[in-house]
Write a structure and sequence with these properties.
It is built from twelve helices and ten strands. By secondary structure, the chain is an alpha/beta fold. Helix 4 (109-127) packs parallel to helix 5, helix 6 (178-186) crosses helix 7 (188-197) and helix 10 (241-254) packs antiparallel against helix 11 (259-273). The protein is globular and about 60 Å long.
Amino acid sequence: MQRALARVLRLPRPRRLLGARPCASDAAASGGREIQVRALAGPDRGITEILMNRPHARNALGNVFVSELFEALARLREDQHVRVLLFRSGVKGVFCAGADLKEREQMSPMEVGVFVRRLRGLMNEIAAFPAPTIAAMDGFALGGGLELALACDLRVAASSAVMGLIETTRGLLPGAGGTQRLPRCLGVALAKELIFTGRRLNGEQAHQLGLVNHAVAQNEEGDAAYNRARALAQEILPQAPIAVRLGKVAIDRGMEVDIASGMAIEGMCYAQNIPTQDRLEGMAAFREKRPPKFVGK
């Protein structure tokens, strides 16, 4: 069992580093892609943004959108320069409107089943991303859009944002992880109530329930949640990257098992962190009464 756990807990080794990536404003240069990736610089160095930009469909989860998001995640997970991954929208007033029902109507029942399994796999890829992930919800996050946010580690919402697992109002049920992640976030009874009723919540209500970490008043630009999410990411940046990643593994894996097994997982993560340069740097900085300079090694 311990060998199996060790394989699960091993951090991925970098295969190749990404070069410069297009800014959100470089839509033309990116060939009109629905998913654009932007590595921030200056004091935000280490924050990478995934910008969802499908305005005509309100960022609905269509085939192209899903394929491009899979591609971006596959590239970014091997980039050790990514300290925090932030999901945001380039479409004002919406985070992600959920499934693309117009595309879905053209599919056979078999094709629908294949696509939903693919969508579930996408959410699992987001949840398993090695660095911390933050969803910045500045607008509607419905159905699959909320499932995407639930797959992230942290969520920030504008108080005016609207979110909910509304699938039962469309004759469906959540199929991309919602029935599993929402009860783990809020508890079984409350998750059942929200899913059974298809109720929509605003950002403040979601914050009161614990569905989002922070709710902020929206600004004229419509990016208040993004600004707060970036500030939250900036709090993570100075911390030891390997320790943060191993902390994420310990929490995520530990939540899936009994507490005794969770303690064993924590111990194995801690053991992996002991030989790192960053741990020695942290101890030296404490002794010398100076800020640590972590390098992710």
